[in-house]
Input
Amino acid sequence: MRVAIASDHGGIQIRQEIAKLLDELKIEYVDFGCDCETSVDYPDYALPLAEKVASGEFDRGILICGTGIGMSISANKVKGIRCALCHDTFSAKYTRLHNDSNILAMGERVIGPGLAREVAEIWLTTEFEGGRHANRIGKIAEYENKHL
Ligand code: RB5
Output
C-alpha cells in the first residue's frame, strides 16, 4: 500500500506522528507538507493529494488540518474520493468496513497525537467488507459518473 500524507499549518504535529506510525508499520508513504508554521490554505494541500489518490498514484491518503473539516470538504470534491473525517476508532473502523474510504481526515485542534495515531492505525489496517456496502458506494460512483 502507498499512502500520501499532508497537512496545513494546523496539523503539522499529528502529521509527524502519522509519519512515525507509517514507518513503524513499514507502509510506504510520501509526505507532501506543509513545511512551514506560517498560515497556508488547506485546499492547496487537500486537492492535489486527493487527485493523486483518485488517479491511483497512491492507494490512500491522510489529511490533517485544525478541525479536519476543511481538508475533508476539499478532498470530497474530487471524483472517486471518499474522505472520512474521524476522531474516534469506531468511526475509523466502520468507514473502512462499510464506506471503503480512501482518505482519512483528522483535526489537530480536536484530538491529541495519541488518539490520532490509534485512529490512523485502525483505518490503515481495516479492509473493506464489500457485499451490500459495495452496492452502496457503487451508487455514489454512479452519481459521480452522471453528474460530475
Ligand atoms: C486554519 O486556521 C484552519 O481553518 C484549518 O486548519 C482548518 O481547521 C479548516 O477547516
